[in-house]
Amino acid sequence: MQLFDRDGSRKYLTVAERARFLRAAEQAPREARTLCMTLAWSGCRLSEALALPADRVDLAGGVLVFATLKKRQDGIYRAVPVPPSLLEALDLVHGIREAQRRRGRGAAARLWPWSRMTGWRAVHAVMAAAGLSGPAASPKGLRHAFGVAAVSSGIPLNMVQKWLGHAQLSTTAIYADAVGAEEQDIARKMWG
User: Fold this and answer.
1) Signal sequence: where (predicted)?
2) Measured between alpha carbons, how far is residue 137 from residues 64, 95, 113 in Å?
3) Is 32 helix (H, G, I), strand (E, B) or coil?
């Protein structure tokens, strides 16, 4: 896995691009907005977000608990801390508290009962509204942006690995290869 495609184009959104994406998401339909926020603030894969049921939104703990779908085993979960604003939006739009009070605690209530393609189209529409295009303007670009932002903020690689659900630390280490403003931010910390 690399942060640039064969043509040398960046495959992640910068901090400014991610902020533009989130501003554009505020104008999207409610369900699309919460999906976009979830992808941007958790770094999860699109398929993991679309599989998220109400019972794995831990409002008290401040985390979303994702089933890690890439490891090809059932029962592997990871908790990712997310901002309170995301949790509030999920509760408002998807009725998390209400679903968790019902029998089964919302285990069968997927937040977005959409296909992968429908989810991708919703994210792509917000990317277009934000004026973003190219390889970075995708759900994967948001995942990579999360990794770069986490490393740039000084989050230890082992925590980023846990949050992204990577089996190998070497996969997570690619986010330390960020360039441009992100690389300058990392270098500034070293300079003092």
Assistant:
1) none
2) 24, 29, 23
3) helix
Angstrom distance (rounded) from CA 146 to CA 49:
14
Q: At what angle do helices 84-94 and 30-42 cross, to 10 degrees?
A: 150
DSSP 131-180: T--STTSSHHHHHHHHHHHHHHTT--HHHHHHHHT-S-HHHHGGGGG--T
Residue type, 53: P
- Rounded Cα distance between 94 and 85, Å, is 14
Strand ranges in the chain using DSSP code E only, listed in sequence order: 57-58, 63-67, 77-81
Q: What is the DSSP letter of 54?
A: G
For the chain, helix, strand, coil in percent to 5 are 55, 10, 35
> pTM to 2 decimals?
0.88
* Residue pair 43/150 in contact by the 8 Å Cβ criterion: yes
pLDDT digits (tens, 9 = 90+) for 59-91: 999 999 999 876 566 778 999 999 999 999 999
